[in-house]
Design goal:
It is found in: Cell envelope. GO terms for molecular function: peptide transmembrane transporter activity. By secondary structure, the protein is of the alpha+beta class. It has a domain of 216 residues: Roll (Dipeptide-binding Protein, domain 3). It has 14 helices and 20 strands. The strands form four sheets. Strands 1, 2, 9, 10, 11, 12, 13, 14, 15, 16, 17 and 18 form a twelve-stranded mixed β-sheet that branches. Strands 5-6-8-7 form a four-stranded antiparallel β-sheet, covered by helices on one side. A two-stranded antiparallel sheet has the order 3-4. A hairpin with a 3-residue loop joins strand 7 and strand 8. Helix 6 runs antiparallel to helix 9 and helix 7 runs antiparallel to helix 10. The longest helix has 15 residues.
Length: 534
């Protein structure tokens, strides 16, 4: 096999939740027709989440990767590094010096896939709908700096912001700002099920069984007008129960590409192999993993308990045992490659020390061992998650200061329970909504945050986040960003663990794999093509 490393310039920021999945449509990798992409992620509609693909609700990397192919946004993230570029818009920009008035002009002749015109009023409707519904997924918080939206004719939209927000163009490039047709999406109600309509590069058709997508077909939208070039006519995403089954499928030629989530052992095997028919592409990753705390829960309500865990956990040992070279220790919510990153946790706690952790607990009058359960999801971040949490359990228990058990749950059970505060401590992953340090901080710390966390720091919410957003030069925002990270290291409402790479494996006749995922882990199906094997 061939291995390719994609080296991208340092990026300035990041997002979001898991790559979405679907099963076959009768077109295999050998068909020469649709390009078939494999994944282990799955979509399910449940009582707690009946509308997984509504842009007013969807807030994980999988559902977003469906929406990014199908629902157009005013702005779009480029395939490499750089600022957002106009997509549904012809042009966008701040019209004042204070970054509080943002105006966009739509492309002429823009249409939904059904042929209906896309108007400025549709954009206004779409944004106001998200804010009106304000779903419990927390996705509407991305648009919380919007005060009012006005239209000027059929093609001009003006956003008046409550406060300066230099990151606003990035937010308009995320699926929460997807343009929907009012007749398909009610103003005050989520659209249940798996139907998706828009003006993006592809139309979407899902094959559903037992309230889950078993296959999804993306067909090139001939009406699309935007910033990307579509290099194929059709892509099918197939879902597999395991990474091993997905790997067997690419070996047989039943699929052309595999993405999330390959196991560490599988990546190592592909990397060391000699099969010239499959290429492994690795690229810089902005995915992070962390422990989150319900700071109202009795077992972790004391800051000293959370600080002691931060003092004990050996990130280097964790990464080496579970992920090897595929990840690296992380000492802040903001990845090391992002402008504004600070090693706040290492600066405060240094190397792991049981003696220092014991001192923290003793001074706070905490009786040891502290009993708690660490919760994780069994099917959302890859098969290695179980081993990761078993290693965390071992590290904490070996100190004699903790009595930790671990418990795994399927994502459809895990996410609603976490949102309702049923777990004291739980593991999560984050893929950037957009490339900026703000997106690794505000979604966890601002009001109406993604986790539904009870932790609230008024200095961060009212002063530091607004200060950082006033700076169009993101390097100039570093002072405020560093203060936020230092406060997180002090209070430990969240404990960052590691930052990972991202990988794509593809058979030799598939082109465009180097850009199949961008720096924000956004799936870009339009980049894939079928070339000449060899």
């Amino acid at each position: 096999m061939n291995r390719k490393t994609l080296v991208l310039p340092a990026v300035v920021g990041l997002l979001t939740p898991v790559l979405a999945a679907c099963g076959g449509s009768g077109s295999g990798g050998k068909s020469g027709d649709a390009i078939v992409v494999g994944t282990t992620d799955q979509f399910t509609a449940t009582k707690d989440a009946p509308a997984p693909l509504d842009p007013a609700y969807a807030y994980d990397v999988g559902t977003w990767n469906i929406l990014r192919q199908t629902q157009q946004t005013l702005m779009a993230q480029p395939k490499g590094e750089g600022d957002p570029v106009p997509d549904a818009a012809e042009s966008c920009g701040f019209t004042d010096s204070g970054s509080e008035r943002y105006a966009c002009k739509l492309r002429d002749g823009l249409k939904f896939a059904n042929g209906d015109p896309v108007t400025a009023e549709d954009v206004k409707y779409s944004i106001e709908r998200v804010l009106r519904i304000k779903s419990d997924s927390g996705v509407s918080s991305l648009l919380n700096t919007i005060d009012t939206v006005e239209t000027q004719g059929d093609r001009e939209v003006v956003f008046h912001l409550k406060t300066a927000d230099a990151t606003f163009p990035y937010k308009l490039s995320t699926p929460v700002a997807g343009i929907v047709e009012p007749k398909d999406y009610e103003k005050g109600k989520l659209r249940d099920g798996f139907s998706v309509d828009g003006s993006g590069p592809y139309t979407f058709q899902a094959d559903v069984k037992n309230n889950s997508i078993v296959s999804a077909t993306f067909t090139k939208n001939p009406s699309y007008k935007g910033s990307v070039t579509v290099n194929n006519s059709k892509v099918v995403i197939r879902s597999f129960d395991s990474a091993d089954a997905m790997g067997a499928a690419i070996d047989k030629g039943d699929i052309d590409v595999m993405t999330r989530t390959m196991t560490p052992a599988q990546i190592q095997k592909l990397d060391a192999g000699s099969d010239s028919k499959v290429d492994l592409v690795d690229m810089p990753g902005l995915e992070i993993r962390y422990l989150a705390f319900n700071t109202n829960a009795p077992s972790v309500k004391s800051k000293a308990v959370r600080q002691a865990m931060a003092q004990l956990i050996d990130r280097g040992e964790l990464v080496n045992k579970v992920y090897g070279t595929q990840a690296e220790p992380l000492y802040s919510l903001v990845p090391a490659t992002i402008t504004g990153h600070s090693n706040s946790f290492f600066n405060k706690y240094g190397n792991p020390s049981a003696a220092k952790a014991k001192d923290l607990l003793t001074k706070a009058g905490i009786t040891t061992p502290v009993k708690m359960t660490l919760h994780y999801t069994t099917d959302h971040y890859g098969a290695a998650t179980k081993q990761e949490f078993e290693d965390l359990q071992k590290q904490l228990n070996n100190s004699g200061l903790f009595d930790v058990s671990v418990q795994g749950h399927p994502w459809t059970e895990f996410r609603p329970a976490e949102q309702k505060g049923r777990y004291d401590v739980y593991g999560m992953g984050w893929f950037p909504d957009f490339p900026d340090a703000d997106n690794f901080l505000a979604p966890f710390l601002d009001k109406d945050n993604f986790l539904g966390s009870p932790y609230s720091n008024t200095t961060i919410q009212r002063t530091l986040i607004p200060e950082s957003r006033r700076e169009a030069d993101r390097l100039a925002a570093s002072k405020s960003l560093t203060e936020i990270q230092d406060q997180v290291a002090e209070d430990v409402p969240i404990l960052p663990l590691w930052q990972g790479k991202q990988y794509v494996a593809a058979r030799g006749d598939i082109t465009g794999t180097a850009y199949a995922l961008n720096s924000s882990s956004t799936l870009q199906l339009w980049e894939l093509g079928r070339g000449v094997s060899g």
